[in-house]
Amino acid sequence: MDAKLAAIYDEVVHRNPGEIDFARAVHEVLESIGPAIRVHPELADAKIIQRLCEPERQIIFRVPWIDDRGDVQVNRGFRVEFNSALGPYKGGLRFHPSVVLDTVKFLGFEQIFKNALTGMPIGGGKGGADFDPKGRSEGEIMRFCQSLMTELYRHLGEYTDVPAGDIGVGSREIGWLFGQYKRITNRYESGVLTGKGLDWGGALVRKEATGYGTAMFAQEMLHALGESFEGMDVVVSGSGNVAIYAMEKVEQMGGRVVACSDTTGVLHDPDGIDVETVKHLKEEQRRPLSGYLDAHPKATFGSGPVWAVPCQVALPCATQNELSAADAAALVANGCRVVAEGANMPCTREAVELFDDAKVAFGPGKAANAGGVATSALEMQQNASRDSWSFSHTEERLQEIMVRIHDLCRSTAESYGEPGNYVLGANIAGFTKVANAMASLGVV
């Protein structure tokens, strides 16, 4: 890392003690942008980088609610409004017991560059709560959402901050959050939340967008290598929204998904996983993947890392830090050629270094999984114009955006003498766009 950037990084670590994930996210960006700073030293003027690493606003608040037994529960809510140089803060809300300020800051920092890469006028932010929706009734989750929005609403607005869903937050939860926002403000401001239901302002393809976009980005990576998904074995981690629709799009593109996973184990079907069965299990029945064997007895389900299954393409779509150096070594040994992150930083730093050493094409999450937020921005466009687009039109727009992101990352890396380095290309392209905007707006 450049000496000046290393000093900035040390300062960030000192000012944010114990925030390991946030520090790693900052390190990855600062490690990449040295070449851009040498060519364009003005991007380091007026402490742009220091300001970029400091959130514009961090909101932490109490979320009290009453469970079905009548007992009072207390959770902690977060919203980090990180950077608004390009537009209103945009980023999801995550409900998971692991959510702490470090989690939200790392996700928000990544969101700045991800959103910049889409080319859409949106800034970066993230939020959530340490609430665990698993095992809770619909009434309990609704009351929690209403309590959270009772505080959060004052910080939101279609021109201020526009949250979406993330882990633990789907269209059901977005509905309850929006209902409380509408009730408090007495405004039908549909553009204040994205990921809404299709009957009340939601966009077609939004549910599929992150997974579809990841598969589209991986397809472009394969095209750059002179290949395609045709005849490829693909492994996907997770079986939530992102994983399911990444599998669906891979299948549509001619690939064969041979393994996926959930918190209970790994499903392996060498003939190709039936995505419709997985959808039925996870979206309708909310059952473990082991239920797949009821209709497909030749498949197997067991413990162990999903990355031990041989494949040519790997799509980590579960959560951060899920793919270790040992997993990366197994993928490389089994002939994997392309890895595209469907989740946010699911590959550890050591795993990414191993992929780089082995010349495995690696697409970082801020580029490969940008399809979700890109389609959220398309939803905002439809809300602003009181319009509704067809599935095919929205999917075409998503495809255009993902191809553009891939080409931007690849061309940026090539222009700095690092052909095929998508991490460097994504970080420099995203940083340059945001830094130029910050410079234009003055010291704010």
Shape: globular
Q: Could you state the order of secondary-structure elements as H and E?
A: HHHHEEEHEHEHHEHEEHEEHEHEHHHH
**Beta content:** 15-25%
How would you characterize the largest beta sheet?
Answer: 7 strands, mixed
Structural Rg:
21 Å
Distance between the termini: 27 Å
Average pLDDT value? 96
Number of domains: 3
Number of helices: 16
Instruction: Identify the CATH homologous superfamily of the largest domain.
Output: NAD(P)-binding Rossmann-like Domain
Q: Using the 3D structure, state the CATH architecture of the largest domain.
A: 3-Layer(aba) Sandwich
Fraction of residues in H or I helices: 40-55%
What's the β-strand tally?
12
Could you tell me the CATH topology label of the largest domain.
Answer: Rossmann fold
Class of the largest domain, according to the CATH hierarchy? Alpha Beta
Which residue ranges are poorly predicted, with pLDDT under 50 across at least 5 consecutive positions?
none
The secondary-structure class comes to alpha/beta
- Strand order in the sheet with the most strands: 9-8-7-6-10-11-12
Task: Describe this structure as you would to a colleague.
This protein is α/β, with parallel strands linked by helices and 444 residues long. Helix content is 47%, strand content 16%. It has 3 domains: 1-54 and 420-444, Glutamate Dehydrogenase, Chain A, domain 3 (Orthogonal Bundle); 55-188, 3-Layer(aba) Sandwich (Rossmann fold); 208-363, NAD(P)-binding Rossmann-like Domain (Rossmann fold, 3-Layer(aba) Sandwich). The protein has 16 helices and 12 strands. The strands form 2 sheets. A 7-stranded mixed β-sheet has the order 9-8-7-6-10-11-12, sandwiched between helices. A 5-stranded mixed β-sheet has the order 1-2-4-3-5. α2 runs parallel beside α5, α2 packs across α16 (422-441) and α6 (138-152) packs across α7 (171-185). The mean pLDDT is 96.
